[in-house]
Design a protein that fits this description.
Number of domains: 1
Shape: globular
Strand order of the largest sheet: 1-2
Largest sheet: 2 strands, antiparallel
Structural class: mainly alpha
Helix content: 55-70%
Number of helices: 17
Radius of gyration: 22 Å
Distance between the termini: 49 Å
């Protein structure tokens, strides 16, 4: 009898964990929340470190921005779980700093200064937030093949960023030295070894393991900069407007285009999450709330001097493995992110990480983004129309931006948008082709996820085993 009661209680607890509003204890929820933090921790902070290096920020400024990244990621996740008006999806979406914007922000920061990057982040975020509230009127135009080629181009654009970090960081005096190449190689090998030997959800921590191993080796080699640890307080609130925003038309247009790209990725992530976690399609309200949160939280991120946020596909993959969608469990993770952001030592530790170690770990992540794009292209289907869109948009977007002189006779505004910005050009070409090319007769139009009815749609349930889908962030 006792065994039957025990088995029933275990099943009840499992059902609560797999229900969004399930009632579970804080002690039971906390481990699952920590797991989500560990799955996204490195990917949340790595873009900041890369952009800060390109912008020439010192160790103290980099530490401050990294601190803000943790705080904003926690706030964004809370808003997705507990919507404010129509902003937020009321889904277990974990927010984090996006790699989508890294290449363009590095270019903007180098040409105009970090203040211009902050201004473009705020302006573009407000635009995406407003567009998100009206997503039902436009999201059908961003078809799966458009999202797929954009994700692929993001991966390609990040390869040079990863290579620069691997060599020691852009502008480093010892760039390409054997010490930097050795550090990058050791970190990369550590990531690969852990990923090959770890089991189950532990594989999510491969990059974190590589960073720890690389950091320890860098300590022995004397390559760690401890200047960011000077005069640290135990607790510290993030600074509001630490960088005065500047608003320039070219950077803002570039960022608005990339925010549309981010919105397209969020559409895919939201559909994947509801399919995996709740065995249903998203409602229109969930689509709108997820995209609006992406935009407005990113604008808030700019206010704190941080880069844009988005929904994290890594955490959707974790939900696919654990099937845990409980709001309290995800909220525990968001709370941990907030606390980590209030402790300056956490951000100072990451800011002290040598670029070569970061490059060794992130270059594998960037390669994974390319492969995610390939998988999305395959999922969209290899019709002649899709092949044309993918081939032409990648050829023009990636090819033309490698030869910047091709834009020499363009107006200065367009040059500021497209020179060196392959992602924006790929998105624009793919979107135009998707709108003007006739559909293949053998294919049923654009592959658009139709929302579930607003009333009567199931909100909870134990999902079936399904593979994760959507782009990598």
């Amino acid at each position: 009898m006792a065994k039957n009661i025990s088995a029933a209680s275990v099943l009840d607890e499992l059902h609560e964990l797999r229900s969004f509003d399930g009632k579970i204890s804080l002690a039971r929820a906390f481990p699952y929340g920590i797991q989500h933090v560990l799955a996204m921790f490195v990917a949340n902070l790595a873009p900041i470190a890369i952009v800060a290096a390109a912008a020439g920020l010192d160790a103290a400024q980099t530490s401050m921005v990294i601190q803000a990244a943790m705080v904003i990621a926690g706030i964004g996740t809370f808003i997705q779980l507990f919507p404010v008006w129509r902003v937020g999806s009321r889904l277990p979406i974990v927010m984090g700093v996006s790699f989508t914007f890294v290449t363009v922000l590095c270019t903007i920061a180098a040409q105009y200064g970090y203040g211009a990057a902050v201004g473009a982040i705020i302006a573009g975020g407000v635009c995406e937030g407003v567009l998100g509230l009206f997503a039902k009127y436009w999201r059908r135009f961003i078809t799966p093949i458009v999202s797929a080629v954009v994700v692929t181009s993001i991966g390609f654009s990040l390869l040079s960023v990863g290579a620069e970090s691997f060599g020691g960081g852009s502008g480093a005096e010892d760039f390409g030295s054997w010490e930097n190449l050795l550090l990058g190689t050791i970190s990369l090998v550590a990531c690969l070894a852990f990923q090959g030997l770890a089991k189950g959800s532990l594989k999510q921590l491969a990059v974190l393991f590589g960073l720890v191993v690389g950091y320890v080796v860098a300590l022995f080699m004397g390559k760690v900069d401890f200047s960011g640890f000077q005069n640290l307080s135990i607790l510290s609130l993030p600074s509001i407007m630490p960088f005065a925003p500047e608003f320039h038309a070219g950077p803002i247009i570039s960022m608005v285009l990339l925010y549309l790209v981010s919105a397209a990725e969020t559409i895919g992530d939201t559909a994947a999450l509801t399919s995996i976690g709740f065995n249903r399609q998203p409602t229109e309200r969930e689509f709108q709330g997820a995209i609006a949160a992406d935009g407005f939280v990113s604008a808030l991120s700019g206010v704190f001097g941080c880069t844009p946020l988005t929904s994290f596909a890594q955490n959707i993959g974790l939900i696919a493995m654990t099937k845990v969608v409980n709001r309290k469990a995800i909220a525990c993770g968001a709370g941990v992110m907030l606390l980590a952001g209030l402790v300056p030592a956490v951000s100072a530790l990451f800011a002290s990480l040598p670029d070569a170690v970061l490059g060794g770990c992130t270059i594998m992540m960037f390669g994974s983004i390319i492969l995610s794009g390939f998988q999305m292209i395959a999922s969209a289907g290899f019709s002649q129309r899709n092949i044309t869109i993918a081939a032409l948009s990648l050829a023009i977007g990636v090819g033309f931006t490698q030869v910047s002189d091709i834009f020499v006779h363009f107006p200065a505004l367009l040059q500021s948008v497209f020179v060196g910005n392959s992602v924006a050009l790929v998105f624009l070409v793919a979107l135009v082709l998707s709108l003007v090319l006739p559909h293949d007769k053998t294919v049923e139009g654009p592959l658009v996820v139709e929302p579930a009815p607003e009333e009567g749609a199931p909100k909870e349930g134990v999902p079936e085993e399904q593979p994760p889908s959507g782009g990598a962030k």
